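User: Just a sanity check before I run the rest of the batch. Below are the structure tokens for the first item. I only need the designed sequence back.
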């Protein structure tokens, strides 16, 4: 059904990116069900297409970049190839750049970036990767409201990273 909607949607039509994002989510579900890499690759391809058709200042762009990041992270988990992790980090940084500093998802996006940077540190054991992880963790803590339920966990995570 979503494929039909995309075929009938004009390339200039503002709903194209949204329809592509819906298709990407459906294809993502297929991958999570089958665990076949070809389904994940198709999901990533459609997610990129949704982002490509989105205006740079469109409010959903950060969310669609975040969706792509999750799919790229799944590909890294599947392949264990460092290039996939690097692309995941790059996309998450792009999502953060497009996110309003007052937007509630900023903290979650920073947390996703922190997790990916931490994976890179564990993979490479290079101290500069740990330092980047600590820097982003501090950013996430700074952006977190004091009454936020995960703040204590993130402070604890920072303490653990500082001990590393």
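Assistant: Here's the designed sequence for the first item:
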């Amino acid at each position: 059904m979503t494929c039909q909607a995309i075929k009938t949607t004009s390339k200039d039509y503002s709903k194209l990116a949204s329809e592509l994002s819906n298709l990407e989510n459906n294809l993502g579900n297929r991958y999570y069900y089958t665990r076949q890499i070809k389904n994940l690759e198709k999901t990533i391809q459609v997610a990129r297409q949704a982002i490509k058709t989105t205006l740079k200042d469109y409010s959903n762009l950060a969310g669609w970049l975040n969706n792509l990041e999750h799919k790229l992270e799944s590909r890294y988990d599947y392949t264990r190839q460092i290039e996939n992790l690097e692309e995941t980090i790059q996309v998450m940084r792009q999502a953060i750049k497009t996110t309003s500093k007052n937007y509630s998802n900023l903290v979650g996006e920073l947390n996703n970036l922190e997790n990916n940077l931490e994976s890179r540190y564990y993979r490479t054991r290079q101290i500069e990767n740990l330092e980047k992880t600590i820097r982003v963790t501090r950013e996430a803590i700074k952006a977190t409201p004091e009454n936020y339920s995960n703040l204590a966990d993130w402070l604890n995570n920072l303490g653990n990273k500082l001990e590393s």
